[in-house]
Design brief:
alpha/beta; 2-enoyl-CoA Hydratase, Chain A, domain 1; single chain
Length: about 300
């Protein structure tokens, strides 16, 4: 090697190197279509053309729902971080630290209180980025705190589910959250407050077996995977091929498990209108244009 190849060429490469962000383009998982990142973001993280609903964080969800993207964070109860001192390939306490660093959340739930089309509302969102949105003691306490806040503020309680199920690192303690959250839903009913569930991709395991299927109304985003066990496990168990679209939101709507499959653009007006109907609240002075599905929700 001589000085031309060792010195001159690297400097020339550096001079003409163009920095390109890694997330400049997004590839649609359904069609393979490549879309400009800003276009997807402007479309509420829905791929234009294919209408594939991408997964979004809890903070992004609250920004889309609350008026002016502003709300008051509900402080969540503190729990013992690693009650069983669990360890697999990695210590559970270290997994929690990593998840908190990556998401900025204390656990899988983020809860806000604010207004949706001028309607006071308490909204809880599961973040799939936090250990697949799994249900543990902290998430169970957060869900209950959200229900208590709704009762205290006398607002509807809206929950966006996204979870892989119960958190294995907490064993029986995670399974105990299923009856505890069910009791919290019962308290909402006793207070005559609406409980609206929005099922997003994916909603599985113990979450589906508890509060995700106890709503007064069940909405779902298009194409969301919703079920207890995954389709592959079911096929291996019954040794039969499952129907096309099995456990997807559209399939569940056709079979009576979901009330409506709603595009992300329409979720806010539909939830606001349903809440006003349940709470017998007057319509806002100025209403935003709504689609046919939104109008049908009020009938």
């Amino acid at each position: 090697m001589n000085w031309i190849s060792e010195v001159v060429r690297p400097k020339i490469k550096t001079l003409f190197k163009r920095e390109t962000p890694d997330n400049l383009w997004i590839k649609c998982p359904d069609t393979g279509q490549v879309v400009f990142h800003k276009d997807v973001e402007a479309n509420q993280w829905v791929i234009p053309g294919s209408n594939h609903h991408m997964r979004i964080s809890a903070t992004q969800r609250l920004q889309l729902m609350f008026d002016g993207s502003t709300w008051i964070d509900v402080a969540l109860p503190e729990v013992a971080p690693d009650p069983l001192k669990f360890r697999d390939s990695k210590r559970y306490i270290d997994r929690l630290k990593d998840a908190r660093t990556q998401t900025g959340l204390q656990d899988a739930f983020k809860i806000g209180y604010g207004r949706v089309e001028d309607m006071p509302m308490t909204i809880a969102v599961q973040d799939l980025g936090f250990i697949t949105g799994s249900l543990g003691t902290a998430a169970g306490e957060a869900f209950i705190k959200g229900a208590e806040t709704a009762v205290e503020k006398q607002t509807p309680y809206v929950v966006f589910t996204a979870s892989g199920g119960a958190r294995m690192q907490e064993g029986i303690l995670s399974l105990m959250q299923m009856p505890r959250t069910t009791i919290a839903v019962r308290r909402l009913r006793d207070a005559k407050l609406p409980y609206i569930v929005v099922l997003t991709n994916p909603t599985t395991g113990g979450v589906t077996a508890s509060y995700a299927m106890l709503g007064d109304v069940h909405l779902a985003e298009p194409g969301a995977l919703i079920g207890f066990a995954g389709p592959r496990v079911i096929e291996q168990t019954i040794r039969e091929k499952l129907p096309d679209g099995f456990q997807r939101s559209e399939y569940l709507k056709d079979h009576g498990m979901v009330d409506m499959v709603v595009h992300r653009h329409d979720l806010k007006p539909i939830i606001a209108r349903l809440s006003r109907l349940f709470m017998k609240a007057p319509a806002p002075a100025v209403t935003a244009p709504v689609t046919t599905e939104v109008a049908a929700a009020a009938e």
